[in-house]
Write a structure and sequence with these properties.
Blueprint lengths: L3 H11 L1 H24 L3 H17 L3 H16 L8 H16 L7
Helix pairs in contact: 1-2, 2-3, 2-5, 3-4, 4-5
Amino acid sequence: MISWKRMDELRAELGDDDFEEVVGLFLDEVEGALQRLAATQSASALQEDLHALRGSALNLGMQQLATLCREAETMLERGDPGLPDIAPIAAAFDASRTLLAENRLIATG
């Protein structure tokens, strides 16, 4: 689900304070993106948000989240009927956020 190796590399590159800030910003951005994804009926807007979310997830080592975004992007690229289901993406994000909290990489409310 999460590449802890990538997380460690990123922490080493950025330092503890910047790493925590980057992860916090990512989590905030994802919540906003998920709200937009759930509300949009535009395939092009959906594809744009999915692509950005996938790239950010990969940079942070969130493999499952990135994979689900890519699968949804592929569905849109192929022109499959309807819009992709965002629920699995939201669930993967929630699970990743829980793992980050359990590993004390993010503060919990």
